[in-house]
Automatic annotation (TrEMBL):
This protein's pathway: Carbohydrate degradation; glycolysis; pyruvate from D-glyceraldehyde 3-phosphate: step 3/5
Keywords for the protein's UniProt record, in alphabetical order: Gluconeogenesis, Glycolysis, Isomerase
Name of encoding gene: gpmA
Organism: Microvirga thermotolerans
A family per Pfam: His_Phos_1
Protein name: 2,3-bisphosphoglycerate-dependent phosphoglycerate mutase
Coiled-coil region list: none
Family: Belongs to the phosphoglycerate mutase family. BPG-dependent PGAM subfamily.
Length: 206
């Protein structure tokens, strides 16, 4: 368990359920989302995982997921660092809109480009490239040094902020990262080598 990094996307949110663009808006978890977060904690507990520190965003769905995971592994109250750098991608003018309504307004092709391209941002929002540019410096400055010192680190965040980390860890490219999906509440367990590359990766699915 040396140089352990666990990434967990938050459980299902109320707006995930309603098929809305969420971004920096702050809906809570659904009951299913709560259970997904608890199940993530149970799977980590079954592996015998314990953490030294946790990181999360300033959005409540990620914070609640982090809390539930820590409760399930018997570490409630573990030091948790919250930072806006780990927030979800900002969808700008799309935030709060139903995805079908957005397609009706701007067209299927345009909405697909906004959602799945690497460097095209929606009106008033961030592209995935912008999100990577926000998340990666924080990872390199605040998270990675702890992992390399041997601390066991949990990051509970969002689909796109975590894709920025997976892009680096898994060696994905701007061409391949947009199609990579992260399921809600499924932990990714990484063990890193001394040169920060990945020694081992486990996806804790059912």
């Amino acid at each position: 368990m040396n140089r352990l990094l666990v990434l967990a996307r938050h459980g299902q949110s109320e707006w995930n359920l309603k098929n809305l663009f969420t971004g920096w808006k702050d809906p809570g978890l659904t009951q299913r989302g709560v259970e997904e977060a608890r199940e993530a904690g149970r799977r980590l507990r079954a592996m015998g995982v314990q953490f030294d520190v946790a990181f999360t965003s300033v959005l409540s769905r990620a914070q609640r997921t982090c809390e539930l995971i820590l409760e399930e592994i018997g570490q409630p109250g573990l030091r948790t660092i919250r930072d806006q750098a780990l927030n979800e991608r900002d969808y700008g003018d799309l935030s709060g809109l139903n995805k079908d309504d957005a397609r009706a307004r701007w067209g299927e092709e345009q909405v697909h480009v906004w959602r799945r391209s690497y460097d095209v941002s929606p009106p008033g929002g961030e592209s995935l490239k912008d999100t990577v540019a926000r998340v990666l410096p924080y990872y390199v400055r605040e998270i990675l040094p702890r992992v390399m010192r041997g601390e066991r680190v949990l990051v509970a965040a969002h689909g796109n902020s975590l894709r920025a980390l997976v892009m680096v860890l898994d060696g994905l490219t701007p061409e391949t990262i947009p199609s990579m999906e992260l399921a809600t509440g499924i932990p990714l367990v990484y063990s890193l080598n001394a040169d920060t590359t990945v020694a081992d990766k486990k996806v804790l699915e059912g």
